[in-house]
């Protein structure tokens, strides 16, 4: 086993066009994430899937037991791969993620998934705070338009700003092809 883990955050049906909270570019992000997962499996890297659930059946999204909460088939876990269920944006908060990484001797974390400005941001920052070398694959992540103060911020701008912020102090941010070419 290598010292690297790929953490696949919230690539769930809820975020696809048939779901209740579709993201801009989720299909392309999932396709890139699938390439990264395949390479990780070939290289003997640890692959950990993270799945978001809202605590309670009356939640508007990520309802436990619903189709939307399921990990999308494009990146489905294989037998033996860990799936962590979380209830917060940060994949480390109140989960076994850190313990799993530490028990496996992981020092480098590669993060892919959704949403760029929420769960990816929170997970990457926590990983760095815990001392992991962190790489975020920007084209294997997706988000959506946001609104603030009566203004709509297009998903592409939200994503770009978030990736720029992560690249400033929270590890490497690169594209899938460059990462896989190493």
From TrEMBL:
InterPro entries: Isochorismatase-like_dom, Isochorismatase-like_hydrls, Isochorismatase-like_sf. One of its GO terms (molecular function) is hydrolase activity. Pfam families: Isochorismatase. Residues 5-177 form the Isochorismatase-like domain. Keywords: Hydrolase. Its EC number is 3.-.-.-. This is Cysteine hydrolase family protein. It comes from Isoalcanivorax beigongshangi. The lineage of its organism: Bacteria, Pseudomonadati, Pseudomonadota, Gammaproteobacteria, Oceanospirillales.
